[in-house]
Design goal:
The protein has about 290 residues and is of the alpha/beta class. About 40% of the residues lie in helices and about 15% in strands. Strands 1, 4, 5, 6, 7, 8 and 9 form a 7-stranded mixed sheet that branches. Strands 2-3 form a two-stranded antiparallel ribbon. The longest helix is centred in the N-terminal third of the chain and has 40 residues. The radius of gyration is 37 Å and the shape is globular.
Length: about 290
């Protein structure tokens, strides 16, 4: 009997297709592995998504760098000081209760010029800073004696930046707050440059109804100007003329803040300059 007739048909079939089954089993294993990898990747992507499903990259946390006053995009050395007006972003209208307040803002020069000695009452020697503090103490007493519940005040310095309200709202004109302000004034030191432009630009930005500035020297060069303002500054004779021009532009643009100026130990030429600046700001000039 031939050998083929002795063969088991089932055995021959299994032997014929055994390679095919091996390839099939290997293919199924590879497919299963690829499916597992793909599924794992989808889970990782889902875990990285925000809870609301938004796939947009989230902004990085603030690293503490200053972006300007209360998030405003214009950098300033007075980032949180409140001059008594309405800051950008406060809303279109002031609160009804606040609209009835009467706010007095003092802008004090404590630059290097205030350390110079002057003679007062034709005999007594003192520094410009000490004389200014004495003038401020009398003004604070007068405010407190008015006993007006609507009256508020704040004191801001330039040369080195100090803020009596410490970033809070202007303070009530009470005897207690006047006493606190006097103690605060006694701790001031004369140092730094008189960057009056930067201080006034922030004051006019917030638009208090009025402000009183006490100065002991001419304006210094602004610490920081953008390219456009730097170009304008370079065209002017000096920092003082640049400041007068900017104040006139602020007023022309609709800023209604008026600025009264008091000079301490100024020369005749300095007095003449500050009379011009006060006039440009809708205010008046006086000697301390």
């Amino acid at each position: 009997m031939p050998e083929s007739m002795n063969s088991n048909p089932q055995h021959d079939l299994s032997r014929r297709f055994s390679p095919t089954w091996s390839y099939l089993r290997a293919g199924v294993a590879v497919f299963a592995l690829l499916l597992f990898v793909a599924f794992t990747g989808v889970q990782a992507q889902d875990a990285a998504k925000p809870a609301d499903g938004n796939t947009t990259e989230q902004p990085k946390k603030d690293d503490g760098a200053k972006t300007g006053r209360d998030g405003h995009d214009r950098p300033t050395t007075y980032p949180k000081i409140k001059f008594g007006g309405k800051k950008s972003g406060d809303g279109d209208e002031p609160k009804a209760a606040d609209s009835k307040l009467k706010i007095r803002v003092y802008l004090l020069d404590i630059s290097n010029a205030m350390a110079k000695s002057i003679t007062v009452d034709e005999s007594r020697e003192t520094t410009r800073l000490e004389h200014m503090v004495a003038q401020m103490e009398r003004s604070l007493d007068a405010l407190a004696k008015r006993k007006d519940p609507r009256l508020r005040f704040n004191i801001v310095t330039f040369g080195s930046v100090q803020d009596f309200a410490a970033g809070d709202e202007p303070q009530a004109a009470t005897e207690e707050n006047a006493k606190r302000a006097k103690e605060w004034l006694k701790k001031l030191e004369a140092k730094g440059d008189a960057d009056i432009y930067t201080m006034l630009s922030e004051c006019f930005e917030q638009e208090p109804e009025s402000a009183t500035m006490i100065v002991g020297g001419m304006p210094g060069k602004p610490a920081k100007l953008d390219k456009e303002l730097q170009a304008l500054f370079d065209k002017e004779e000096n920092a003082g003329e640049f400041l007068i021009k900017q104040v006139k532009e602020w007023r022309t643009a609709g800023k209604k803040t008026t600025l009264d100026i008091t000079g301490v130990g100024l020369s005749a030429d300095e007095k003449a300059y500050y009379k011009r600046l006060a006039e440009a700001a809708g205010g008046t000039y006086l000697d301390a």
